[in-house]
User: Fold these one by one.
Assistant:
Number 1:
Amino acid sequence: WLPSFVELKGRSRPQGRRVLPIERTRGSEILFGVAPCSMALSQARRDLFRLFLKQSVGPQRLVSSELVLQAAARGVPVLHVGRRELDELCGGRVHQGVCLEATPLRYKRMEEDEGSDGESTNRQLLWLVLEQIQDPMNLGALLRSAYFLGVDRVVTSRRNSCPLTPTVSKASSGAMEVFDVYSTDDLRSFLKAKAAEGWEVVGTVSQSETVENVPVISCLEFRWNKPIILVIGSEGDGLSLETQLLCHQMLLIPSGRTLHPGIESLNVSVATGILLHSICSQKLRKVLPLQQQG
Amino acid sequence: WLPSFVELKGRSRPQGRRVLPIERTRGSEILFGVAPCSMALSQARRDLFRLFLKQSVGPQRLVSSELVLQAAARGVPVLHVGRRELDELCGGRVHQGVCLEATPLRYKRMEEDEGSDGESTNRQLLWLVLEQIQDPMNLGALLRSAYFLGVDRVVTSRRNSCPLTPTVSKASSGAMEVFDVYSTDDLRSFLKAKAAEGWEVVGTVSQSETVENVPVISCLEFRWNKPIILVIGSEGDGLSLETQLLCHQMLLIPSGRTLHPGIESLNVSVATGILLHSICSQKLRKVLPLQQQG
């Protein structure tokens, strides 16, 4: 069958003519934006049904040709549609002229993972654990940073975490398409097990928060000498008390001025980026030439 | 006068009854969200007309009482309204039960600024210059980070930059209300003048970009030994060529893995947070006790 909207495409369509809804393959979702669609086409992690492209001119045309080549290589049909059909397909989000119909991505379950047993705990491993991150923009930004900065694994708490939606993929700038994301049903047992294996569990705290029974240090003082799990809580609530109590220490990002009460924290993805970079720089310093000493 | 919607408030209002539009003071705008409204009430930078609050229960009630006290101290009338009136007031944005009618905040003009002449160039000063940041969410996140991390001044290019809207204030978590933001009509002349005064102008570059005639170094190798201007470009386009050529050097955030083509950068506010923290940590290291050496 051919979707009914195809007859409507083109510039000659009269203003105000109704955009007919596009029939979707059962169980599919609509990825939107250049990076998520291009990355999904480059990987074999989703079943792909149709690529929807806006007829484009100018520099956007090059991007389109690239996507058409990728789709051809994967045997994915390409349909040229109007802007309004794309708006409709992705619910008015910023699609940059491209949508892709595909099966959803799911979290990998830590419980089913066989690979980690063989990993030596002597390696400089860094895992990022996300507790109840519900905002898809924050989750996407966190995945993008984790991927870029070299986090070995991201694990989320299954309970109260945002699923791996197309919005998360867009906010991750496509990193979600190439980077496995794990989840666990029982965050507490998972952290306890890793601690027993010799991992260091590190939480975060902002200047206005207090933590009992867990030492707080500046991220500048932190030394990386065993595999680390960095645990991040949600923007509003931070880490749960149960998780805080499983941390060996809490990292604080020092502020550079006296802060007005009520503006005493950073955005969660900015704070996580700073902490990951601060930790990773200890590894990077060893391999980079230092050209500008003194 | 009393706005007409006041008669409509309360839980007894029948479902579906139309929300009458609220008349606005000429030239005012509507701030939304707890942090922007609370910070605006705490400062004398805007004229404030009315505080709109949702009747609240639970923990939100404490926040409301605090806002009512702040409004009383400033002599700002408080109106209790329904959720739908608040939705209408701020165009459906996330208001957290509070809106504030106020005069807009404007950029301070660098050209009118008299203060900087007296500042010694020997101090460890850090200014952040934003070139053509048009996305209000990014601008807000950048202001929040700049404020937290201790940037001495933020300067934007007047041309093609987003104005200081309520959305920017919300994204800055209220930092925009307490932190002066400057703009200049002529970014190039401004950078040239600061360079002539002995400032170091530092740009940024991602791994996939090339820059001619400007040395590129890792942010880990950067040494802070004179007043710095860090120049940031927009997420899509980066710095203009003209601005790049005015930079003494370009900073690169090293990635922690081999990156897939197309996902070779960080979100602009995350990248800026990492660069500012990386620069500031050189100042902070000197004043913090190092408890965990070795």
Number 2:
Amino acid sequence: MSPVKVFGSAAFTNVARVLVCLEEVGAEYEVVEVDFHDMEHKGPEHLARNPFGQVPAFQDGDLMLFQSRAISRYVLRKYRTPDDGTNLLRDGDLQGSALVDAWLDVEALQYEPAVHAVFVQHRVVPALGGTPDEKAIGENVEKLRKVLEVYEARLGERRYLAGDAVSLADLSHFPYTHYFMGMPYAAVFDAFPRVRAWWQDLVARPAVRKVAAMMDGRSG
Amino acid sequence: MSPVKVFGSAAFTNVARVLVCLEEVGAEYEVVEVDFHDMEHKGPEHLARNPFGQVPAFQDGDLMLFQSRAISRYVLRKYRTPDDGTNLLRDGDLQGSALVDAWLDVEALQYEPAVHAVFVQHRVVPALGGTPDEKAIGENVEKLRKVLEVYEARLGERRYLAGDAVSLADLSHFPYTHYFMGMPYAAVFDAFPRVRAWWQDLVARPAVRKVAAMMDGRSG
């Protein structure tokens, strides 16, 4: 039995973020499904794990944790294999870790809100029988375009967002971008060749490919 | 001349967050105003500091940084006085730092969006000659109430959100809550006595009092 449990399925982007980190460091873990149809996420057992009734929740022995980026930081701090050469948080490097923090906040507070809003209109609203709000989609694709302009300039200076090696700041973009690339609005990336090359780089990583398959129900 | 520069004025909540951290650790710093009326924030000099044209931007010698929570982490990591007893990030404590990360993400992704939306409708929209959207205000006060319910339960187990000592996760709530407490909607806090006690505790801190005065134009 693995001491590490992730509550929630890989199809949720916030769960997939944590799974990518676990796969990157080669940690053993167990995925425990939470039954949303049965309202299990709002039941007392799950609320004890995540007081907001969301996924993921995370357990490592005595420690219960929630919020996907906080869990990701914890996983990378505790389980990183020292000999793999990749310090995905730049722990112990004052300036390097500050840049990872900055670009991770950009992902959480500037990139994800735009992509999330498009996802909700394009996928969630029709699934609930509604009509997508095309104006909201257009506004958020435009917000995303402005963020990608900044990324394109940044990736001209550095191979990855926080420096010349991959970090959590890059990997954290994966789950929502994976879905976005399957939508008609993905064309907004066409004008940004360095961003596209960065994305190809990310999806070539074994950990990312494995979690992509889990998200799409092809394995896991 | 101080090596540490904060670009942007204390009246901006994201700037105030950084200033509280600098004051908590007693670091020397200089505040450099950015002239928004003159569009200085979208000029090449400021964009080199913050590619999104926002405040704060931050300089410490060679390092340029942006995103207020990333700057706050950096300040607390670099300048914390070891003998003051307060490790506001729980650096070096795997579980403790994970809890600070989790509750800081709650502040950024659950608390602030609700308070921000109310602030925009109540303060920004009328200042631009518009009429506040009362429905949006009501929805976001309700979102805030649900977050405060979780806080009230949490503060029954622990004196502060991430444990028994204050952390960045608590302090990060200060700037927006300072403004919110001056609005008629502040009554939503009345039902949560532990949250009110926690707030009184925070605003009694000398660093917080000093930055509150700077935000209100009473000094600084």
